[in-house]
Amino acid sequence: PVVLGVESSCDETGFGIVSDGVLLGQGLASSAAQHAEFGGVVPEIAARAHLEAAVPTLRIALADAGVEARDITHVAATSGPGLATAVHVGLAAAKSVAWALDVPLYGVHHLAGHAAADTLEHGPLPERSIVLIVSGGHTSILAVGDLVRDPIEHLGDTLDDAAGEAFDKVSRLLGLGYPGGPAISRAAVDGDPQAFTFPRALLRPKDAPFTFSFSGLKTAVARTVEKLERAGEPVPVADIAASFEQAVVDVLVTKALRAVRERSLDTLVIVGGVAANARLRAVAQDRCDAAGITLRIPPPRLCTDNGAMIAAVGDLLVRSDVEPSGLRIAADPSAVLHGAQLPLPQ
Ligand code: ATP
Ligand code: MG
Ligand code: FE
Question: N or C: which end of the chain has fewer CB within 10 A?
């Protein structure tokens, strides 16, 4: 198969082309700069940007892959979760392409896409693994088998903010702008991660072992900044950024490794936008090495939203002989991750 993947759930317009587990090429546009002055993604602006970027970005993906439109044998598109207006644009574009080329269309769960991104770099997932999804809207520990055939088991999620959301909110209150993850990460390079001791929620043994909470951490950072400002003292942005980042990373890695051990597995996969974070990658690698656990993290450009990861899911669905979703599928903006395809086959 030559599968075109379409992603438009947030502020990235992504097209990717995958064949038999191999990424042939991709195109990516982002409206992040247009949202910066609002401190977060404005759905209507994102939708409009997807509409403008769709055809040029598809052209880039085709040229990058060195394939003609008529070579595409299947189309896969994010049908949820995400911003409804944004998902609609990419899904409509995918339907148009599938209809014009008379090829099957698959609706794909965006988070299955994040997980599948890793297969483009490291090959098929092992028979079973723990997948830590850390993104702008989700923070989940999953037990995953065959992405297409096996149901996905949620071991734990976040009670409040997602990890990426915490980065974005803390970035805003430190005046570092949107998107927050890369901004905090850059500021943290020159900071001392031990300068401030920020809370690590739910980390004691008696707490819910795989559940996260990041809103208290965000509040603690806000209090620290307020206190310094009230006292007329300078705000050590680099130290606060580094200490915040360290607190998030500590909790994420501790709980993910706990899940790997509890399930007697040997592989941890970390995916989603926050997996691009250098400190998370380094700390996870150190702790996995010490524990004899195989760590898989896609390269940073495949961690944040892109079309290649959606094409990767489509390619898996095709090769597993799954029925296509058809041209009538609708968006499912708040879809929970149970399987790779959306809607799940009846
Ligand atoms: P979801 O996948 O849950 O629907 P999303 O698609 O908006 O949400 P992603 O694109 O996967 O999220 O990730 C974006 C998030 O990742 C943002 O919150 C951003 O701040 C964060 N992020 C990106 N790069 C980094 C980084 N280097 N360090 C930390 N966080 C990062
Ligand atoms: Mg984004
Ligand atoms: Fe995402």
Answer: C
